[in-house]
Amino acid sequence: MAAAGGKSVLFVCLGNICRSPIAEAVFRKMATDSGAVDKWRIDSAATSTYEIGNPPDYRGAACMKKHGVPMRHVARQVTKEDFATFEYILCMDESNLRDLKKKANGVNNCKAKIELLGSYDPEKQLHIQDPYYGNEQDFEKVYEQCVRCCKVFLERNS
């Protein structure tokens, strides 16, 4: 939990078992390594109900372990409270963005800035493709994109 007056970011994808927990873990490690983790509230969630209660995909977990990035997460769905309490909600693709903006319309006190995580990518890859039906290389690509994007996001918000 971030200190009072701290910053907050919620990473979101469809099921919250592949892309968003990878982004959450990558960002948490970067914030920890930079000494800023205590200033942040960091979490991830899903637009859907498909995977609620499940751990991250084993291929994503293996990728994080390979890179020395700790990852502990249980999938959950985005709540109305998230829109009111998170400063940033960063999602992975246009479908997530549409779903989040639609949900945000039903929240009276929405304060979250809803953006694509890829909008921070110096290589201009806006969408982080879902690796669920892919292989280990697809998870590696998600990891690399998250590293690039989270680095820029952290720099801009430090």
Q: Regions with pLDDT < 50 over 5+ consecutive residues?
A: none
> Can you identify the CATH class?
Alpha Beta
The averaged pLDDT comes out at 96
Number of helices: 5
CATH topology: Rossmann fold
CATH superfamily heading: Response regulator
Shape summary: globular
Q: Number of domains in the coordinates?
A: 1
Distance between the termini: 17 Å
The run of helices and strands is: EHEHHEHEH
Total strands: 4
Share of helix, binned: 25-40%
Main-sheet strand order equals: 2-1-3-4
The proportion of residues in beta strands is 5-15%
What is the CATH-assigned architecture?
3-Layer(aba) Sandwich
Keywords for this entry:
about 160 residues; 5 helices; single chain; four-stranded parallel beta sheet; Low molecular weight phosphotyrosine protein phosphatase; alpha/beta; about 15% strand; Rossmann fold; Ptyr_pPase_sf
